[in-house]
Design brief:
Strand order of the largest sheet: 1-2-5-6-7-10-11
Oligomer: single chain
Number of strands: 18
Bound molecules: zinc ion
Number of helices: 9
Shape: globular
Structural class: alpha+beta
Strand content: 25-35%
């Protein structure tokens, strides 16, 4: 079919008058490399929600990360069915910024200050505009950009995180946490399940990935969306197979229970989610499928 079409097109070109072919100049435009705009903004009720791409990279041997407790055959079969290679996976790091109308709230800070502030700038925000920085959990790809050298990246911000999470990492003796988050303790508000960040943004406990991992439910003008962070880490391997063990889940059994619970809730209620590691722009819906779930990337629902 493809060949036939191409042959027909070539025959068409050959039939062009000679003058037309001779006067056509070649642009010789440079190859630009693959690219994506690093932000995606939409309205959710009265809120403006923007996902920002702070970084992306290919990582080898995804089974060692996302399918630790299954056979290579099972991993390959699931990957083949989703048209995914098994030798590498593309990782995405996607903070979210929410303008509530009265405050600008940033959820997670990326691997580094540079990556996140560059994406923020593309989206029209400068670091000094951020009023609140919410940290979902203390892994380096979420707290890496909270400091820029020795100074806070967001000079006017207060901080919000889960109390269980902060306490657990305080006791752990973790170098990144001690350098980036501990110095901010005085300016940090600590939340438990159901705690409010600000009007319309509520913390929801999602323990397992880390001891005190939190997700955040946005609720504005009758519309809801879950900022899910890392409760589910891959759009196929972790959704279709919630019990597949993920290297980064610190308590694998609890993480699997949390995944099933939250994915079940999102599927039942039709509430969209933003997943920090979902494929860019990281916004999607969840359906039940078989014993697991299916990720449906956002198309235009939130534009309407
Ligand atoms: Zn992460």
């Amino acid at each position: 079919m493809t060949k036939l079409t191409r042959r027909a097109a070539l025959a068409g070109a050959a039939a062009l008058p000679l003058a037309t072919a001779a006067t056509r100049t070649r642009a010789a435009a440079p190859m630009m490399g693959a690219a994506d705009a690093p932000y995606k903004r939409f309205k959710l009720g009265e809120f403006e929600v923007t996902t920002i791409l702070a970084g992306t990279r290919a990582v080898p041997d995804p089974q060692a990360i996302f399918g630790m407790n299954v056979s290579p055959e099972a991993f390959k079969e699931a990957s083949d069915a989703a048209h995914l290679p098994i030798d590498q996976a593309q990782f995405f790091f996607t903070p979210t910024i929410v303008n509530t109308g009265s405050e600008l709230v940033l959820f997670d800070t990326g691997l580094s200050a540079e990556g996140t502030t560059a994406a923020l700038a593309a989206a029209g925000y400068s670091p000094d505009m951020v009023d609140v920085v919410v940290i979902t959990h203390m892994h380096g790809d979420h707290i890496g950009g909270v400091m820029n050298g020795d100074a806070p990246t967001y000079p006017n911000a207060r901080y919000v995180t889960g109390s269980t999470e902060f306490d657990a990492w305080s006791a752990m003796g973790n170098e990144t946490f001690d350098a980036k988050m501990k110095p901010l303790a005085e300016q940090t508000t600590f939340l438990a399940d159901g705690g409010d960040v600000t009007g319309g943004i509520t913390a929801m406990q999602a323990f397992g990935h880390t001891p005190g991992h939190m997700t955040y439910l946005l609720d504005s003008g009758g519309k809801q969306l879950l900022i899910g962070a890392d409760f589910t880490n891959h759009y196929v391997w972790s959704l279709a197979y919630p019990d597949w063990e993920v290297k980064f889940d610190m308590d694998k059994e609890m993480a699997a229970q949390t995944r099933r619970k939250l994915l079940g809730m999102l599927a039942a209620d039709g509430v969209p989610m933003i997943g920090y590691h979902m494929p860019w722009p990281a916004i999607g819906y969840v359906e039940t499928r078989g014993d697991g779930f299916h990720y449906v990337p956002h198309s235009y629902q939130l534009m309407l």
